[in-house]
Fold:
Amino acid sequence: DTAVSQTPKYLVTQMGNDKSIKCEQNLGHDTMYWYKQDSKKFLKIMFSYNNKELIINETVPNRFSPKSPDKAHLNLHINSLELGDSAVYFCASSQIQGTGNTIYFGEGSWLTVV
Amino acid sequence: AQKITQTQPGMFVQEKEAVTLDCTYDTSDQSYGLFWYKQPSSGEMIFLIYQGSYDEQNATEGRYSLNFQKARKSANLVISASQLGDSAMYFCAMRERRRGAQKLVFGQGTRLTINP
Structure:
């Protein structure tokens, strides 16, 4: 009963392809995120959705498009993959309304573009 | 802009010793939150401990405690009686809130190695 689950865990694909990473949380949280961890282990936010509404969109290429069909799901679609997109992508969730503070992360999706 | 600094890229500690991982932060916000996460070699991000800026007492969770010194803007993680399983990357992060949105800003991380 993983709290934040993302699939696939590993993805190897060729440049130019389009791929998606799916994320689901069963914590009842109202907010979900995508973070990117680069080869130097630095973590940075990409997107945040609150109740299916995009509320944070950091400086991310248009090739990255998040989609939130409902509060419990936030998928990341990447078009025309480039070598520099190789990274670990983490989904996360938290509850903004109320007293909850903790942001919980999924196990990460290792994307390798060749 | 907020900034988190972890000045120790790597640390080596003997098993059963206590270890302190440093974290300093910079913010003009009055209300903020500080987090520590552990990332073992398997890659997942594990939440360890949280400290709110208005919390008067230092947070503790089992062997983890957060040494919060607000005036010095530091939020060091203390691990007591270290174990081999504590070997991992450790990230300090600050929660930033803007117009109903929140995000974590992370430090560079510290790689902790526990020696037997």
